[in-house]
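The instructor's notes for this session suggest beginning with a concrete chain rather than abstract definitions. Hand out the sequence below and ask the class to guess, before any prediction is shown, which regions might be ordered.
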Amino acid sequence: MTYYCTTDEVALRLGFDSAQKVRAQTRLTSSIRRATVVIDSVYRDYGRPTPSREIATTTLNGSVAAGATTITLTSASTFSAAGNGNIDGDSFAWSGKSSNDLTGVSGISADHATGVTVEEGEMAEALRQICADYAAGLYLQDDAALSDQESLRSPMLIERANELLFRYAKLGSVD
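After discussion, reveal the predicted structure:
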């Protein structure tokens, strides 16, 4: 199964330092799995294919400058011959693929360093943000269940994630 976000992104939402993130690794991963299941379920409820089947992920193999027309990836094997994607949230399109290069690229608006995440799928970045909010909210709910404190952030994070998730699932795109 493809997960939409990482423990780093969820830990950032929760304001964790590196030591807290390490201690909470298992619970963070569990929250991410649950958030991914919710996202896929909502898409299926709207009769749409689950986005996790449409997202390919790799990293840049070399830096990319704004306006670049070719992007070299670490591995382009799971990327389509043409499509849409994003580099660290910077959306772009490509019209061809040759080995590990995406060609006919348009829309790169900023410079990007080697090793940065590249995702296929027009909603990959939006889904990453939704997943991080949802997983952080679930983490806080679980935390509240284990203590006497109730978090006000949990409902807010889940509500924000749900609002965007239902909109994207209904529309089928981020536009």
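Then share the key points. Strands lie at 57-59, 70-72, 83-87, 90-94, 96-98, 101-103, 117-120. The mean pLDDT is 89.
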